[in-house]
Amino acid sequence: MTILASGEGVNLCTSYYTGVVITRVKIVKQIYSPSKSNNPEEESTNDQPSIVIKENDWTRVKEGAASRARAEGNDRDCFVVENPNRYSILNDEATSDQETTRSAQTESMKENHPRKKKSGERKPDDPTTDHETVIVVGDSMIKHLNKGRLRRSVAKKALKISTESYSGANCDAMKHHIRPCLAKNPDTVILHVGTNDMAQKNAKEIAKGVVEIGNIIQNQSPNTKVVISELITRTDTPEKRRKVAEVNAVLLTNCKKNKWGHITHANIQAKHINPYGIHLNRAGTPMLAKNIISFLNEQN
Q1: Is 18 part of any domain?
Q2: Could you tell me where the Basic and acidic residues compositional bias lies (predicted)?
Q3: pTM above threshold 0.85
Q4: Residue 180 is part of which domain span?
Q5: Confidence at residue 168, expressed as pLDDT on a 0 to 100 scale
């Protein structure tokens, strides 16, 4: 309640906001006149101030912006305008005419806007885009080969190259690792293994183990071409360096006998080996990749 003093009277303004009904009473004039009657009862009655109340002409309105406006004391007339949502509820089932129209529109869009061919997507019926698959399988000596660079460097672009590196794998372990690779039905398998057998086996035993893996490839996947990547030189001990040369000589003989491919690494020297004398350094890995790329280009 708020009381304001104004002129000869007091305007008493009271506003009530009940959420739905707004009532406002204005006391527009309040006059106090001392009683001049000699009757005490009349005098006591006349001591009360006379109040003139102007009836409020506001009407019931809906709760909303109009209600808030009147609650804030806005004297302008407020009108409630019904604004129904222009979106109607969709039916769960479309009529047959609607389904026919939508189907026609869909077919028209497909004809006018054919689906664009994604990058790398090829037509299954186009024999010129079929890729030959090559898998390079080996121990940690091939772990730094970049299959993307190998693919880009090969002259035949329709050639898909992947690498499978198994660090620490010897010939016995590779006999098991090679089987999941053959499940992909590759056209060519390049096998590089034998380095991790140097401490336990002699040269003939190591070469025999590599040849046995080649036979597994040939027997399990007859259409796959077998390529043997010879061992890379080592600089840790002179004995192991000589053993590498002996293994490579036996492997070359078996590759000619079985008509397998053979990749030589005679251009990889001591300067391409890391300080531990076993793995390739940053200059050696590109040399290994170069030898593989040269072989693939000669075959195609």
Answers
A1: no
A2: 121-133
A3: no
A4: 132-299
A5: 93
